[in-house]
Design a protein that fits this description.
The protein has about 100 residues and is mainly alpha-helical. The protein folds into two domains: about 1-60; about 60-99, Ribosomal Protein S14/S29 (30s Ribosomal Protein S14, Chain N), CATH 4.10.830.10. The chain is about 50% helix and about 5% strand. The protein is built from three helices and two strands. The chain has helices at about 1-30, 35-50, 80-85, and strands spanning about 70, 75-80. It has a two-stranded antiparallel ribbon with strand order 1-2. Helix 1 packs antiparallel against helix 2. One of its GO terms (biological process) is translation. This is Ribossomal protein S14. Keywords: Mitochondrion, Ribonucleoprotein, Ribosomal protein. It holds the Pfam family Ribosomal_S14.
């Protein structure tokens, strides 16, 4: 569990650090007014970037348990932990629904 959380944190940092380069390369590749040689070079450079720097490699995980399924984005907590914390009254503004 700790390793998966550390790996996720590392990936998030890498995505952030390579985001600008990745966008620049993609814009060059999509620009049809540039020569094919320049665009091909941009493809090569994009492929040389670390795989973990791609945003699609990020998986939303619970910051408490490391669970990867059923994670509520707003709090980054799994549905199970969220339910427990809400029942204890530890999440402000959240209460059981009643009507």
């Amino acid at each position: 569990m700790v390793n998966t959380l550390q790996r996720d944190e590392l990936r998030r940092k890498q995505v952030l650090s390579y985001e600008l380069k990745r966008r620049q390369y993609k814009l060059i590749i999509q620009d049809l007014s540039l020569s094919p040689d320049i665009r091909a070079r941009a493809v090569e450079l994009l492929n040389k970037l670390p795989r973990s720097s791609s945003p699609t490699r990020i998986r939303n995980r619970c910051i408490l348990s490391g669970r990867s399924r059923g994670v509520l984005r707003q709090w980054r907590i799994s549905r199970i932990r969220f339910r427990d914390l809400a029942a204890q009254g530890l999440i402000p503004g959240v209460s059981k629904a009643s009507w």
